[in-house]
Amino acid sequence: MKKIEAIIRKTRFEEVKEALLAADIEWFSYYDVRGEGKMRQARIYRGVMYNTSCIERVLLNIVVRDKNVEKTIAAVQKAAQTGEIGDGRIFVIPVEDAVRIRTGERGDIALYNAELEK
Amino acid sequence: MTSLLLTTLDTGNTAWLTMSAILVMLMTVPGLALFYGGLVRSKNILSIIMQCLMCTAVMSILWIAFGYSWVFGTGFHGTGIGAIIGGFDKVFLNGVTTHSIMSPSGVPEITFCLFQCMFAVITPGLIIGAFAERLKFSSFMVFTILWSILVYNPMAHFVWGGGWLQQMGALDFAGGTVVHINAGISALVMALMLGRRSDYRPGKPIPATNVTYVFLGAIFLWLGWFGFNAGSGLTADGLDANAFLVTHLCTCVAAITWMAIDWIYSGKPTTVGVCTGAVAGLVAITPAAGSTGVLGAIMIGFVTSVVCYFMVAYVKPKLGYDDALDAFGVHGIGGIIGSVLTGVFASAAITGGAKGALYGDWHQLGVQLIATGFAIVYSGVITFILFKVIDKTMGIRVEPRVEEEGLDIYEHGENAYN
Predict the structure, then answer these.
(1) What integer best gives the mean pLDDT of chain B?
(2) Separation in Å, CA B71 to CA A59, B102, B145, B233
């Protein structure tokens, strides 16, 4: 079981979402995040100029079974790519366990719906 | 109509016209700024607010400098040129003093000038909806200034200032042709020429950042429109009361109609839908407010909502142009329907003369069609030329990176939310 964290451009979100759905990754969470980077952008407040390195991105949080890791990474990378600097990163993190709150099921089975899988 | 005969000042009319001017200003800032601002993504909301603010500030200065003279001046009155431009006799309000009283309404000419100024302000503001989220601010400024000189001022003179369309008898009580068709068609041309926003896919709308702002903006527009329509008679009398009545009624009908269609076809009544329907109704009743009664208002509200819904929900995705905030779909189409239906529902009981096809006078419908057709061709062609010139000389669209990260931070150095 792995957690895939992907930081992507906000403008590529729809494409990534569709690519994930096409790869049968049906649920994930995401948030708007701000990061710091090398890009600098001038900001002005009442005549005072200051620089900000704040970059806005979307962070996807996808937990998948081991067998789905590669296709998830491939889907995100393909859909999020523009070729310009700033396309983002994908991180793969091991996950110890998962519990489905409704039933108490643990492990891989908590990640997917066994009935729908068949 | 800009006679300087010594008429006595009518304090009642003056008070109402002053109030109306304030209401019409509210339509642009904050009305349009919030309505359009709420509909774009949070990274671009300030760019919309800035564009609305600049419409207000720049257009007002231009109007006082020479716009008013061009539209309502009388320098060329009675000559052939008078059918096309008013004159240069009132540049910088030359000769317009505190003692200039308009006849027959008895309001100071300064008040009239301010009231009309707010119309010149909002008209280019409406176009913002079509090119939202991708136009350079500098190009916007140049476009808007040239547009008001070459498109708004001439059209306003043709229809209101004694130009050839007015001489022909075209009815445009408060600006269906001059404001809404004019801006709506320009919006369509701009959307077509600019192309889509880079991440827009036809049939997949980009969700509004803040529907609460959309609601606030729509209500400011609704309120402001009472000044827009009920002030356009320049007097505080029964005609203005009727304009107020039909404006409100038509808007309510259009809002409910939109909600009903939403409910039937999309399964749910939506807030953005009702706000859009209300604005479509306001647009459509504008040319008819001074000539139609209760029946006409209900019909216009209903027909407009149905057609505008069809345009933005089916035709726009089908054709694939990116009229980002439906400036054409609502203002262009709503204006055209209102302008044509004015020729159908105009009632002699209200106009005191002209009447529409419904009451047996097909001539008025013909005149309305000519005025509408001319406005479409004129604003379409000039906008096309303006786009080409600005695009070739200074570039009209922002860089892909700016479009992606947001106009607010790159063009204005600010974020709306921190």
Answers:
(1) 91
(2) 55, 16, 15, 17
